[in-house]
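1st attempt posting a full record on here, be nice pls
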Amino acid sequence: MLVSNGVAWAHAGGLSSSANEPVVLGIEPAVPGLTVTVVEAGARLRLDNHTGQRIGVLPPPGSVINALPVVDPGDSALWSDPRIAAAAGKPRPPDARLDWRIPLRIGVGSAVGSAVGTDASDAELVGEQRWPAPPDAALWWLVTAVAAALPLTLVAWGSRSPGRRPASRGPQAGLTESATHPDGFPDSRGVGGVVARWGLAVATVVVMGAHVVHMYGSALVVAEGRLVWVFLAAAGFAVVGWPIGAVGAWLTARGRPAGPLLCLVAGALLAIIIAPADVFSFHDAVIPFAWGADLDRLLIALTVGGGLGVVAAAWLLMRRAAPAAP
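the predicted structure (as tokens):
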């Protein structure tokens, strides 16, 4: 069970963005060799036991929870604590801080609460839930809109630029156009055609790359499991979309008629099906990402906004390249 008060599970390991995060303040009384840290952007705690005694995490009074860890000397454990989950689900306090305490038993038997010898003692993990200042969501939605507009603007401008070669007239028009432009793009030799094709190709590569970096950075936050499997599991159907987008960008840059269609498919897969749940990161302060929350928000804006722009730009390029009806 993972602790999360986010709206959507949109990152690696089932993690999500959140409005708050737990912070460990210490152990009372101090226990030499015992450390507890927050991992996975607050989703779980990690207990490292170097005390020489078994340590158990005690459940809340009257609780029937029995899945809290008992950690042998030299071992570690990850767990989601119900007290932190309860604190995370409460409204933001006026001072943006809410205390919580987790009781520990130092020196336990096979079951939590069964003391061993006379050396068994109690301690408490002391911490608080903090609500950092939320990001400027309007700024990130603006970045998303700009990312959506750029590919479409480049393709629209390139398709209408003076570099476009006018269509031939007369009975030999179809033969002349086919022979001059065998790749299917009647304006591909002009400056405008180059701008349109390369604008779509570069935008598609940027969108695919942004999503790859987003997924890899979020996979690095997960505290257990092999990185490659965590990354692939988090990527899901995106592992199909990435190569489709890469091939589509390459074919588009070379003026092949199948290129824009592949770019459209890849952009729609990421921007419409996979990545929309990530936009909650525009509103939440705590992001499960290894290289900073703002970088992740930028990557999400490029994926969602740029992906929508690629869809629109690819459709426009295919429409402009389609032969006119007789």
